[in-house]
Amino acid sequence: MMHPDQIKTLILAGLPCEHLAIDGDGHHFEALVVSAEFTGKSRVQRQQRVYQTLKAKLDSGELHALSFKTLTPEEWSVQRG
Amino acid sequence: MSEPTQQRIHQTVTGNPVVLYMKGNAQFPQCGFSATAVQILKVCGVNDFVTVNVLEDPEIRQGIKDYANWPTIPQLYIKGEFVGGCDIMREMYQTGELQKMLAGIAA
């Protein structure tokens, strides 16, 4: 059982984010990650980058159900309109 | 990382046009994300994809995570190439990219 804030802290510790929102019930989480580091990277590379920051929790099985949206700041501003 | 397991995975993903590593099978997925992945492939018109149930084989379950450097299941491979997990499949379906990749494979 993890709190969304714990996940947020872990991601922020490993990846500079312009924006990070996480929603979840302790078992399933949804994250919107906006980072300039994603620029020029494929979807797979972006998500791998976020997974890196959560490796310990994923390996332990504490965290397994996490949905992602990964955007660059430019993509994010377009989506917000 | 065990070599024979990595070789087995390589043979499976390169020997079949569409392979989904999942929990359960297409008829009875045992995880919401795996169920979504199966649904997405079906609405793309792909019906004869190969599924590998990672719950039946602990070596594959760990091995597939190492193979793609991807820590979660499901994982989709098209023509030997790792495409992504459930989120990426959903995004690529919404943009039409996935349908394009699967065009010509869909029976």
Account of the 3D structure:
The complex is a heterodimer of chains A (81) and B (107). Chain A is α+β, with helices and mostly antiparallel strands and 81 residues long. Chain A has one domain: 2-Layer Sandwich (GMP Synthetase, Chain A, domain 3). In chain A, 44% of the residues lie in helices and 25% in strands. Chain A is built from four helices and three strands, in the order αββααβα. Chain A has helices at residues 4-14, 43-53, 55-60, 73-80, and strands at residues 19-24, 28-34, 65-71. In chain A, strands 1-2-3 form a three-stranded mixed β-sheet. Chain A is globular and about 35 Å long. The model of chain A has no long low-confidence stretch (mean pLDDT 92). Chain B has one domain (3-102): 3-Layer(aba) Sandwich (Glutaredoxin), CATH 3.40.30. The termini of chain B are far apart. Chain B has a four-stranded mixed β-sheet, sandwiched between helices. In chain B, helix 2 (32-43) packs parallel to helix 4 (86-95). In chain B, a hairpin with a 2-residue loop joins strand 3 and strand 4. Chain B is an alpha+beta fold and 107 residues long. The radius of gyration of chain B is 13 Å and the shape is globular. Chain B contains five helices and four strands. The chains are: A alpha+beta (81), B alpha+beta (107).
